Amino acid sequence: MSVKHALLALLEQEPMYGYQLRAEFEQRTGTTWPLNVGQVYTTLSRLERDGLAQGGGEDTEGHVIYRITDAGRDEVATWFTTPVARTQPPRDELAIKLALAVTVPGVDVATVIQQQRSATMAALQDYTRLKRQATGTARAELAWSLVLDSLVFAAEAEVRWLDHCEARLRRAAAELDVQNSRLTDGTSSVKREFRRSTGETHADRTRR
Amino acid sequence: MTAVLQLTDVVRVHGEAPHEVQALRGVSFAAYAGELVAVMGPSGSGKSTLLTIAGGLDQPTSGAVTVEGVDLARLGQPERARMRRTSIGYVFQGFNLIPALTAAENVALPRELDGVAPRQARAEARQALEEVGIPHLADRFPDDMSGGQQQRVAIARAVVAERRLILADEPTGALDTETGEEILRLLRARCDAGAAGVLVTHEARHAAWADRVVFLRDGVVVDETGADRAETLTEPAAR
After folding, report:
1. Which chain A residues are within 8 Å of B207, Cβ to Cβ?
2. How many Å apart are CA B114 and CA A161, to the nearest integer?
3. Chain A with chain B: Cβ pairs closer than 8 A
4. Low-confidence residues in chain B, pLDDT < 70
5. Hey, what CATH topology would domain B1-87+164-239 get?
6. In chain A, which stretches have pLDDT less than 50?
7. Domain ranges within chain A, ordered by starting residue
8. Which residues form the Transcription regulator PadR C-terminal domain (chain A) (predicted)?
9. A3-81 — its CATH code?
10. Residues 157-176 of A with CB under 8 A from B
11. For the complex shown, is ipTM > 0.90?
12. Which one, of A141, A138, A151, lies nearest residue A28 by Cα?
């Protein structure tokens, strides 16, 4: 996550000091991605070093106020007009876990899937509860509600993917069963076809 | 506190051996006043069967269904029909409104069938339409309404005259995301006001509006989230 760009974008709104920046950031995004103040000040000094922001002047309580520079404004404009890179998918622990679960012998994959589905569903219920409370139309509240929507859609996608995995594994297991029964019951499909066409029943065969 | 809806060991077999299909294989399930329960499962998991049985539209092969303490199996056909009209409200994916009747007439219909005077039924209908936010559409016909508006009418019909059990089968299926969300908000509000709601859906985003989510697979409840909620409702810590 680009803390640098988020802070710059906030500074474009108006000059602010560190604590203020953190508060503004969290008002828009909830505490989904908590920022500590240390992180804010480290970022601010880097922005200053790179000429994107300038610290100077203090308010009555002695907070150093930061303001954006022209180069900073250009940087923010570029950020907003550039899509977020998707070249390298972030490491997805769940996908990795499932990939291993289906290959390592002795793992009950169905249980792995269901446990995850329950956990993700519970998170989804929490997000939805938060959404129900966030009904205001103020800009910052709308922003927070959109962030919640993003979490909702991501959790939903995860549940859908788990449903999909389950369906595919079931189909694969069913196909394997069919293959195995062909191998073990010693009945060729030709014989079975013959029996079906002659209407011979299981009872007929046992009587014989 | 007794459950508004209680299913005990419900089995439902369709067809006969050797072609019988077990749609439900021993499902026990309850919905209490003030809670919305979602039933999630893929197609063929038995979730729609569960809902039709809960609503008395279909009978279990074995097991018991009680609504507000009344065993549906012990009721005769007329009493069961009466129960369906007075205690249970249904919301379907396809709205199921009668095209020749206005919104208010659609909502008033179950009340009139139940012998309530037309005037009073109409008044109750208007109140229900107000509750779902469309009092101004009372005299509109279904064909002159959007999908979201029609579903609001269907919800008004399901809740008219304080019915205590609301059963919804994929109620947002035919609606866009935002309209669907408004419909869920209404269902939710109704449950917060004291009704028991059962929402059948295959969409996690919709199930997330519920207090509890029950997972159904092959006619069996395999898991449940938020299971403590019903417990805390039935046995308040103060007692």
Report:
1. 121, 124
2. 46
3. 50
4. 1, 227-239
5. Rossmann fold (3.40.50)
6. 190-191, 193-194, 197-208
7. 3-81, 93-193
8. 91-170
9. 1.10.10.10
10. 159-160, 163, 167
11. no
12. A141
